[in-house]
Amino acid sequence: MHPPHVSRRRALAGGAGALVAAGALGPLSGCAAPATAVGPGRTALRYWHLFGGGDGVTMQAMLADFRAAHPGIALEAATLQWGAPYYTKLGMAGAGGRAPELAVLHLARLAGFAPGRLLDPFDLGLLAEHGILEQDFPPEIWRRGQAGGKQYAVPLDTHPFVLYFQTEICEKAGLAAGGRLKPISGAEQFADALRAAKKATGRPGLVTETLGPDCITPWRLFSTFYAQTGGTVLSADGKHLALDDTKALRVLEYLANLVEEELMVRRADYPACVGIFNEGRTAFHLNGEWEITTYRGAGIPFSMTRVPALFGSAAAQADCHTFVLPHQADRGGAPNEAAHTLVAWMLRNSVAWAEGGHVPAYRPVLDDPAYLALKPQSEYRDVIDDVALDDPAWFAGSASRLWIELGAVFSGVLTGSRTPRGALSEAKARLHGLLGTRNPLPGAAS
Amino acid sequence: MTSTAAPPPPVAKRTGTARRPAARSVRRPWTEHGLVFVAPFLAVYAVFLIWPLISGVGISLTSENITGSGGEFVGLDNYAEAIRDGEVWSSLWNTVWFTVLSTVPLVLVGLGLALLAHQLRVVQWLWRLSWFAPFLLPSGVVCLLFAQMVFPSGFGLADQLLASVGLEPGIGWLSDERYAMLSVVATTVWWTVGFNFLLYLAALQAVPAHLYEAAELDGAGAWKRLAHITLPLLRRTTVLVVVLQVLASLKIFDQVYIMTGGGPDDSTRPILQYVYQQGFTGYRIGYASAVSYIFFALILPVSLVRPLSARRRAEEAAK
Q1: Which of A18, A84, A118 is closest, CB to CB, to B281?
Q2: Is B53's Cβ below 8 Å from some Cβ in A?
Q3: Which tens digits make up the pLDDT trace of A99-142?
Q4: How far apart are the first and last CA of chain A?
């Protein structure tokens, strides 16, 4: 379908890469989606995603169902490693115009992903033929998928930061009844709840990832509570710093105090924080909703709820998995239609996807009895109207430089290696650095 | 005779066999220097080292991104930005600090093991094999082994060792800023000390035995023989080992990337990882190239130490 050929530009990029880092040729040379051999009368559809673990299992099962229902489409799905390497591969594939027909992208990364150059727009007419309409999505999330008046990303879900709790411990501590957490509002009430939990277990009440390689939970924590104060990190156009020192310090000092008072575990990397909660050593756990599969598998008595409103609103940091069409020089025809078919099918069947904890972005599914029957997945579904996505900037979004750099800075506040004030000024310096750097992948449409 | 000049480049064959008698062509100066034989190597060297080196300078003067399009000429802006970039200097310092911390034990332990293996007279092959064997493992295997078996907080081998002597375990070997770099250093020493061990062992075996015999007859004890015969004769090897080790340590990337990801809080991130982050996850190939040339400029003097010292010795010997 797409015969491999090496252009001068590609060869040059390869040479530069080899110099920049040893072994660079590997990642660069493997970036075109391989052509599939398909039987006569079948349409080849290549799809790249980054779902491993529990999500990966769910995705594979859904794709198997799709294959069974669409014998005319030869679907070849590739699971790539989550994170920065995925985006490097996807970008390179789009740059060469030999990308797969369909891929997954985190919504907050769209601004940095050259819509119009690395990504092709969706054909909304084609989606409508499959019954997928704009009004079926939360407007804010749908709009974030647009650039230059075209739709480049169609949201599948949102995956917010949530509060996990051990039902038995919380009931013992008088914090929950009937498997539901009693309402908590305000920073002081939350600290009181943690104190009560500590009394019940003799250990800190809360665990979350505070350190480790590429640790980003400290950023999620800050982003959640800072958004609750009503503050924004960047201006609406993503070009200027809008961080409010007073509000940011309130949040950082509160977090530092939680650790200082031993209400929260000071040092835990990601596997450790999941392990600690899994063993029932803390009553509360702040993390993305995707770990639900881990705790369910372990069969512990737990539930999940929205992050309580500590500083005003009940906003929660989130990002969204979306479908995108990576740039193909010859996009169109049957393969492109097959990509739209798969998108529509996945959206309509996203109850299965929701089992993994994600909140479906396609609203009709939110009212589906099958979804409402999912507990505790449907307990926090109304967070979809209060999600705090990163402000649109090229350096934002899942596994972005913003997350990794500020995750490391705010990690210091939790482990005690930085003061809240010191972390704030370092965070601002990093943000100024990122803002002062031109978007390396400007889009034709942005 | 013709066959010596014949094989690789067709040029040699044509001029050698068609126009001149074979015997004379062999004596042409350029074949005497063996240029024909190194030509295949030179070609590869030019394509994969010289050319990227030159084109990389060009790229470092542009705002090139990873997709290879959209780069504009920006002059020395990338270099100016890199010099003002605090993260360049902090990660460069991490690289230098790692080099200092790792080179000293790698040289000393390598020497110590070589002396031991040279003296031990029983099952010699076993010592040689077991001390060299870790060097044969790929970096990924070594790093995962240490990250998942030795350094896990609470139940890793390192913590259990502490617990067995009555100390409190629970140290964040890879997650605590105070220990992370040292843990990476310890892993590296275990992994690569075998190479230095091997160089030293070879040098030890080249020391003529009659020197020791003569010294023994003069009444020199073991310690004196070591200080006045062995170590002075190992000096050239030591220069070689130190220079090779410094160059190898400056290239630190794999261990940190796999074991700590550069953390905690960038405290172990070496300059090469920063280049990788800027180029491959930040998509700024132009800027990443500029940073790597700054690093290149710093590494160059180190790599010139050995050829220069070798030349000086040759001159001294000629006098």
Answers
A1: A84
A2: yes
A3: 999 999 999 999 888 788 889 999 999 999 999 999 999 999 99
A4: 31
Of A91, A409, A437, which is closest to B66 when you measure between CB atoms? A91
Smallest CA-to-CA distance from A82 within A119, A107, A49 is with A49
Segment A145-158, tens digit of pLDDT = 999 899 999 999 99
Backbone angles phi, psi at B73, to 5 degrees: -70, 125
Task: Inspect the interface and report whether the beta carbons of A211 and B53 lie closer than 8 Å.
Answer: no
User: Which of A19, A410, A414 has the highest number of chain B CBs within 10 A, making it the mutation to test binding with B?
Assistant: A19
Instruction: Please enumerate in sequence order all residues whose Cβ is within 8 A of that of A391, keeping only pairs 6 or more positions apart, or say none.
Output: A232, A233, A234, A235, A236, A238
Q: What is the pLDDT of residue A279?
A: 92
- CB-based contact B176 A267, cutoff 8 Å: yes
Chain A residues touching B153 at Cβ < 8 A: 267, 272
Q: Distance, in angstroms, between A443 CA and closest chain B CA?
A: 10
Give the distance from CA A424 to its chain's centroid.
24
The pTM of the full predicted model, rounded to 2 decimals, is: 0.79
Is B207 within 8 Å of B229 (Cβ atoms)? Answer: yes
pLDDT of B28 reads 63
Residues of chain A contacting B70 with CB distance shorter than 8 Å:
440-442
Q: Are B259 and B253 in contact (CB under 8 A)?
A: no
User: Per-residue pLDDT tens for B172-212?
Assistant: 888 888 899 999 999 999 999 999 999 999 999 988 888 88
CATH number of the structural domain A160-318+389-435: 3.40.190.10
Listed by start position, the domains of chain B span: 2-63, 86-318
CATH code that applies to domain B86-318: 1.10.3720.10
Q: Where are the domains of chain A?
A: 10-159+319-367, 160-318+389-435
Cβ–Cβ of A21/B276 closer than 8 Å? yes
> A10-159+319-367, superfamily in CATH?
Periplasmic binding protein-like II (3.40.190.10)
B275 touches chain A (CB under 8 A): yes
How high is the pLDDT of residue B311?
A: 80
